[in-house]
What we know:
By secondary structure, the protein is an alpha/beta fold. It has 3 helices and 3 strands. The longest helix has 13 residues, at 46-58.
Amino acid sequence: ADVTDILAASPEVLVVGTGYAGFMEVSKPLRSALKDHNIQLIAEKTPEALRAFNQLHSERKRVAGAFHLTC
């Protein structure tokens, strides 16, 4: 999904997986856009991000995810 699609969906939380080793960074413009839309950001290494996403989903939170699989 595109960032505009995520913002339009109005999740409470966006969980970003930053890769297996955590090398991917969330850009400042994305951080600003999320803040402007009152969307909480959780950015963790992908395995931890998947656990966070699944936990939030099980709690019935409106959650979106973006998961980088390499690096």
